């Protein structure tokens, strides 16, 4: 399926010693399979980091040959409209500070829409770097009766060209040969003119290819056309979106949460066995209660978190997420935003930190700042362990609508909805006060629907597991130890104090008056303090304080359902994340906005929790 063509060059581009390119940039428009190709090339040899001086993430990975591939942000042209696109262009031009200059470029385009990318191809070729043009989705092109002659395309472009399918892994041999230098280098083309447009003679279109029969556009995807009649319908579309979300929560509570509970119980039994074989009581308490039980309680929520990431990955990889952005644009327009804010807000369901970084793709400064300020309201994965603990402990596993829906899943969905509504309300408030102005226009490409790729899903699970386990093995582990020592100090005659007479108890006594109107106790207050470092640590802190992996049972006796509802609302709306505050400070280049954000969210969370508690008491729950 692959064809690698290298036309005889007039001027040969310089090549690193040894013939192989050391640092290769992967560039292309969004939704052309660039990430799929990157995952296939690098596998698990990836890392995510920020460009020096700016919080724009980029992924880089190692090939088996040892070469480095840098996955650049998606671009439509080399005239950047947003910060991340500017970074991509700077890296391509070799002007990005502290980033190695590229030796070569892999330019990925969608073969089913080749005519849309000819301008970008011309602009990238005009940079003068050795470039392999990868026409992706060859399998879909064939299935939809389209045709591309890569030899004719290569002659038209004057650049090496390969026809590939990143999802199926066909055509990868062409990339291997290109990266090893086993081909004639592409001609050095004229440099870019001002404004980022390719020099005359560099850009081309598909007219000649079409006339000669070298390019035939594929038929429209019938499934995409038919399904979009429902997915983009102003009434049915939002209902479908809601059904997808409800299905995700049902899977979480019917499969992921029971699996996590079994994992926690298994780890707890191992901890008890280990503790029984340690003769020294203090050492046994430190290892089992201070370390093992706290970590085990958090690890029990790993299946729940991974389940949510699988759902998000499937929706993204299938092409549905772009439709969800269009649906969201209709709502966001009413609060002064548009669909461009949807994708950063969606990524905030994983973590607010990368979501805030992702706002650099929003051209409008007003929309970008508004999105930054409301992103922490979205329910991040770090909140999930707390939600799951409280819902499982206080909300009965009652089935509704037969067996189609459960009360616990509905409760979880309502918490997500609460965060979203708070975000939209805040955006509206900002649009009427601090950030007045007209919303910017919104445009997004709707890719064809595709079956999600198992490889992409597995890599997403691997990446998130690695991040979560690193958090458990570092920050949460240290916090657990600190909580255990503070809850058992000072020592008397070599014996630890009771929790009620410890340093931590005194700290809890100081904040308990603030929590009492919400129906909460000092143990809950202590766990909320540790949440500023890592939200997941609430579960492990409570497990350490109560001396049990399952802190839900102890909470039921201590705060009751009314207090649990108030705690859920508080946790849904409060900031409680120093990492988020730090990245807001960096993105806005000011302490004003993070302090305003922190104060506003805390007051809103406290007020909403107070109202929730009082209403719950009034209904005698």
From TrEMBL:
Pfam families: FeoB_C, FeoB_N, Gate. Gene3D superfamilies: P-loop containing nucleotide triphosphate hydrolases (3.40.50.300). One of its GO terms (cellular component) is plasma membrane. Signal peptide: none annotated. Keywords: Membrane, Transmembrane, Transmembrane helix. GO terms for molecular function: ferrous iron transmembrane transporter activity; GTP binding. Residues 21-185 form the FeoB-type G domain. The keyword Translocase does not apply. The chain crosses the membrane at residues 230-253, 265-288, 295-315, 342-362, 369-395, 407-427, 467-487, 559-583, 595-616. PANTHER family: FE(2+) TRANSPORTER FEOB (PTHR43185:SF1), FERROUS IRON TRANSPORT PROTEIN B (PTHR43185). This is Fe2+ transport system protein B.
